[in-house]
Amino acid sequence: MRKVIALLALLAVTLAFLPLPAEGGRIVIAFDVSHRQSPAGLEVLALPNMTGGMYRVLIVFDDSDLQRIPNATQRMFNEIRRGGFTAENLRDVDVLIIGMPEAALRSGELDVLKAWFSQPNRALWIAADSDYPAQGSERAQQFMNQVLEALGSVIRIDHISVEEPTFNIGGAAYRVMGTIDPSPDIASIIMQGVQHRRALFHGPGGLYILVNNKPVNPVKEPDQRPRNIHIIVRTTNESRVVDNNPAERGGLPPVFYDPLGPARVSRGPYPLMLAETFPNNRIIIASSETPYGGYQHMTISAHRGVALDGHVLVRNLLVLMNQVVVKPQVVTEVRTEIRTVTATREVTQLVTQVTTVTETRGLELPIAAGLAVLALLAGVAIAFVLRR
């Protein structure tokens, strides 16, 4: 009995100091399947060890999208919202994941995304693909570039494919093993639990950034990389670009990474995943392959007998985005002394101007303390009853 009492008391203390829910009681993460994305991999992303205590939302356009998603996968989400990207569907979303889209943006959706991301504490992960014409065109790249441009990002994806002649799976150059090599400022989060430093990017495209409206490879030209651009995954020096859907066959020409150009652009390394941070606790993650959907999503731990860190990488990215959206706004104060001289004395007034309002994503300290005390008292009461 004493052991039971001690255990209950320990449980009470533990409950008292558990992390409290965010504002409104939850962090909302939404996954988009309203643009004809394959649902493959959603069943992994919706697991508690991936999303933690986040409130999981599935965004579809209509019932035809639901017909493509197994019932067991649908049941793993807390809510399903119809209509695609609408202001109502995104009203409380903190983290939005757009896997590789196979349908274009609808009228008005770009404005909705822009208005949503203009709010503080927002995280977006958008994924595209290579130019391999499995989907018939470079639609995913166009979709991604439209969104990134509208949101003020400098990240873009080119209309090409990136291949690895050596660092691949099964001898197929298009089965790229992306090297997980994050910038030092985010490495502590991204590298948690990473063992092999590689993730599958099955037929990826190539990312670049715009610096003074000129394309730059931030991996090969680190001195040109702005401080708010962070590398997450790259290729090796042996990687190359290939134009699988050339203009003469109806494809879009390369913007930057020309396979027929000099080694500066036709040979790697290339960024496969980048993060861009913005003021007011906002972040965009852009990847040239997708965490769900596609021919083979990156959220796998092995492929053709090769061990990978894809599931760990994706989990850590969700942790990173969660940390961004729960971070409180910074308060800056401007203090000004105003001295007034009268006939008999000098009077000093201290004027404080708050230029940024603090937004906390947790419960206020008095409430937290109250809940802690209640949890502790509940444990003591249970222990007293059992002792009798």
Describe this structure in words.
With 388 residues, the chain is α/β, with parallel strands linked by helices. The protein folds into 2 domains: 46 residues, no CATH class; 306 residues. Helix content is 27%, strand content 26%. Strand 11 and strand 12 form a beta hairpin. Helix 1 runs antiparallel to helix 11. The N and C termini lie close together (10 Å).
Question: In total, how many beta strands?
Answer: 20
* Distance linking N and C termini: 10 Å
**Principal-axes shape call:** globular
Low-confidence stretches: 1-24, 340-344, 346-388
Structural class by sheet pairing and helices: alpha/beta
How much of the polypeptide forms β-strand, as a percent range? 25-35%
Task: State the gist of this model.
The protein is 27% helix and 26% strand. The protein has eleven helices and 20 strands.
Q: What structural keywords apply?
A:
388 residues, alpha/beta, 2 domains, eleven-stranded mixed sheet, three-stranded antiparallel sheet, 11 helices, 26% strand, disordered N terminus, disordered C terminus
